[in-house]
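Hi support team,

I've been running sequence recovery on a batch of backbones for a student project. Most finish fine, but this one hangs at about 90% for roughly twenty minutes before it completes. I'm not sure whether the input is malformed or the queue is just slow. I've pasted the C-alpha cells below so you can try to reproduce it. Let me know if you need the job ID as well.

Thanks,
M.K.
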C-alpha cells in the first residue's frame, strides 16, 4: 500500500516505444524492480505494454516522480518518448499499485483500439501541428479510467 496522499503529489504520463525486442522475462524483471523501487519511493501507477509501445502513469511526491522520469529517459530500452501529461494532482488514480501492470492478453479489442488511437494522436503531433491538448487529454483519461477495475481486484 502506498503512503497516504499528501500535498505535493505529481502525476506524469508518457508513451514510448521499445528499442529493439523486449523478451517477456526482461519485462518481468523490470516490473519486479519497479514495484520494489516505487513502493519505497511512495510512487504508484500503471504500466501498459502492447505491440512494442509503453504507456505509463506515474504518481507520487513531485521530486520522486521527476527523478524516476529522468531515469526512464536515460533508459536505452525506450525510444520516441513523449510526455503526455505532467502536473500536480490532488489524489492518485491508482493508489494501491506501486506498479500496476495489465498484460496484453488482458486488453480487450476495444482497449487495443483505444490504445492504438491514443498513440496515433500523440505521434501525429509535431511542433508545427500540435494536436489539441484537450482532445488527447480526454482520450487519455477515458482510456486510463477503464483500468481502475483491475486496480480494485
Amino acid at each position: 500500500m502506498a503512503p497516504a496522499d499528501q500535498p505535493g503529489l505529481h502525476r506524469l504520463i508518457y508513451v514510448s516505444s521499445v528499442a529493439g525486442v523486449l523478451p517477456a522475462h526482461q519485462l518481468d524483471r523490470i516490473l519486479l524492480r519497479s514495484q520494489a523501487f516505487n513502493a519505497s519511493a511512495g510512487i504508484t501507477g500503471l504500466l501498459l505494454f502492447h505491440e512494442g509501445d509503453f504507456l505509463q502513469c506515474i504518481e507520487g511526491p513531485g521530486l520522486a516522480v521527476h527523478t524516476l522520469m529522468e531515469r526512464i529517459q536515460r533508459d536505452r530500452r525506450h525510444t520516441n518518448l513523449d510526455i503526455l501529461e505532467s502536473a500536480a494532482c490532488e489524489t492518485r488514480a491508482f493508489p494501491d499499485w506501486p506498479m500496476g501492470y495489465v498484460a496484453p492478453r488482458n486488453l480487450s479489442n476495444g482497449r487495443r483500439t483505444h490504445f492504438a488511437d491514443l498513440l496515433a494522436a500523440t505521434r501525429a503531433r509535431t511542433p508545427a501541428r500540435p494536436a489539441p491538448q484537450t482532445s488527447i487529454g480526454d482520450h487519455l483519461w477515458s482510456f486510463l479510467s477503464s483500468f481502475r477495475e483491475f486496480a480494485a481486484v
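--
Follow-up from support: It reproduced on our side and the slowdown came from queue contention, not your input. The radius of gyration is 15 Å. No action needed from you.
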